[in-house]
Design brief:
Blueprint lengths: L1 H32 L3 E2 L10 E5 L11 H15 L5 E5 L9 H11 L7 E4 L5 H10 L6 E5 L4 H10 L4 E5 L8 H21 L16
Length: 214
């Protein structure tokens, strides 16, 4: 009985410590990045490039609501002369799944010139996308576009890697999967902090810029 009580006590303590760790990391990310996150176009300073972080694409090639809002927000920044170029980064680890091609097609359909778009087919997660944008593509002057729950992690990573990026919120609706994504984001924050502390290199360090992939 005593062993059971000890087990329960230590289990509860462990759970409490995990919860406080998760909330603490989230608070750190927010404190470091809140001044660089904007939600009004009139207030954000102009930057050279908008970085669009990839998200899921449907089997028919259509953008998911979350990704569509990111791309539409980037276009809005461009049309309001807040950015000049687009950097598209996302997952293209297999031939039958290509976030980059879907985003680039969407941009071109809306009149964005091809020479305004660079593509990173190896942005397999947020850390890889931010690392590669700054260190491989040499993007120094940028605004990152994604949802509010995702921006603190993206900007914290970029700051710790030495890149001075702003963030702009892409929230344009309530998302059906938002609660699940927010919970996943809390766990992803732990991974991001670990990667930043280790100064980890991305899994893929090539450019994969072949236009035929888009």
């Amino acid at each position: 009985m005593k062993k059971l009580k000890k087990f329960i006590l230590f289990s509860v303590i462990g759970i409490v410590l995990v919860i406080f760790t998760i909330l603490g990391i989230e608070a750190i990310f927010l404190r470091h990045t809140s001044e660089d996150i904007y939600s009004e176009i009139s207030k954000i300073p102009a930057r050279e490039t908008v970085i669009i972080l990839g998200a899921s694409v449907h089997s028919d090639g259509k953008l998911s609501p979350i990704l569509k809002d990111r791309v539409d927000t980037a276009i809005k920044l461009y049309r309001n002369k807040k950015v000049n170029n687009f950097h598209v980064t996302g997952d293209h680890r297999t031939e039958d799944y290509n976030e980059i091609a879907a985003i680039v097609f969407y941009l071109r359909e809306r009149g964005i010139p091809e020479n305004k778009i660079t593509s990173d087919h190896a942005g397999l997660d947020t850390y890889d996308s931010m690392y590669r944008a700054g260190k491989l593509f040499k993007i120094e002057d940028a605004t990152v576009v994604t949802q509010k729950f995702h921006l603190p992690r993206a900007l914290f990573i970029s700051e710790k890697l030495g890149f001075n990026y702003y963030g702009f919120t892409a929230d344009q609706r309530a998302y059906q999967t938002e609660y699940r994504l927010k919970q996943r984001e809390k766990l992803a924050n732990i991974k991001a902090l670990w990667e930043v502390l280790l100064k980890k290199e991305p899994r893929t360090m090539d450019y994969r810029l072949d236009a035929s992939k888009d």
